[in-house]
């Protein structure tokens, strides 16, 4: 696992890391082992950090300056001890290293975690710890003991003039091929499903690396899920071995209580599936190909009907709905944080709207990249879609090629030959405007089938608390069945901790009732995750 830590001792910044080091433009630059810093066309430290997975840091006069890359490849947390307690200043990529530090609950950070699954901008659930958003600079004044975090890049990439689908396909495929060539001769492991990302990744590995050295796996709540069916077909079509199926059990979620503790609340218990699979597989000598960040860069939230008004974007709608009943004072803090996220966007850029922009710059670095960092505890991890060269090319394309990841579909259809997939957009209703994959009749039949299964399982949940439910082939996990069954024992103490100790006043509280909707179960997971986090770091 690549780690970086730094501590201010007697006005000297002492670094503890296993990363490689170089001095560039007067900054100490730390980067991943077995890699190198590319300084082509880099005229200053900003360009270096933009184009490489690295951390840049320098101490000058009474200031400490830290810069991270546009992906948040290394999660950076900064602890500033309250002046009344001492003068400790810590930087770390491993959140668990803050054990022993004096921490208090940030109520606004707690509500942000519940509303958005992570703190907004630099906020965390703790007053004393800040996290660095992607592509930002943190400046700490050692005399005033004040920390300021600001953006150094707005992710604006100029639109290029390109009109041919074939030219778009060739351009993106060329960049991806260069990235995947470095996996030649490597022993790899990768999770696959019927979705676009893993299919595209396997095609790229077949052409540029060694598919016979690739071990694949698919997880799910039972073997009949469509993910597994299409994963088998994908492997067969490409001449690879069929994926190993790993059934998710109650232990998957019970073991995942460590994830919010390890990630500072950015990764909840309900996202422990792949982590659980990797832990139980014999793959320590392999390198994981993680397709995280593909959603962000390839256009998952690029919408043809998006209204380019931040007041109408999803994040602002969540704020206005105030589902968890935050007080007016706390809401004002949350709104200020949200505006920091929103205001970094340039007024004229090539994003379809604030939904795509925030998903790329805020959600993916806070969740997907931090989850992949946790995987690196178990084995080496490569993230082919989190590369500046790919980001620069794909975001420069006309939006019509990114709508709902259309570019991936085009590559698979025209270069590989399309076969049916189980992409989440098909069953979430996101591809209704442009049905790339299926006829409207087939789509409607499957969508209605999925809804009927959901309704039947909601009734069964009330009857037997999730012990027996109808298998649903359209979903990978059955959170509705799992939550009450696995965490009934935690509801009472978690509710008391969050309400009495931390001071959250939550309405529509799934900890006080049985969940009959998946959305309720997911909110329950968020609350339990937050409770485990606070119990670990605050409650004695």
Automatic annotation (TrEMBL):
GO molecular function annotation: asparagine synthase (glutamine-hydrolyzing) activity
Enzyme class at the top of the EC tree: ligase
Any coiled-coil regions, as ranges: none
Keywords: Amino-acid biosynthesis, Asparagine biosynthesis
Pathway recorded for this protein: Amino-acid biosynthesis; L-asparagine biosynthesis; L-asparagine from L-aspartate (L-Gln route): step 1/1
Keyword Amino-acid biosynthesis: yes
Gene3D superfamilies: HUPs
InterPro entries: ASN_synthetase/amidase, Rossmann-like_a/b/a_fold
GO biological process, one term: asparagine biosynthetic process
Protein EC: 6.3.5.4
Catalytic reactions on record: L-aspartate + L-glutamine + ATP + H2O = L-asparagine + L-glutamate + AMP + diphosphate + H(+)
Protein name (database record): asparagine synthase (glutamine-hydrolyzing)
Species of the source: Butyrivibrio fibrisolvens
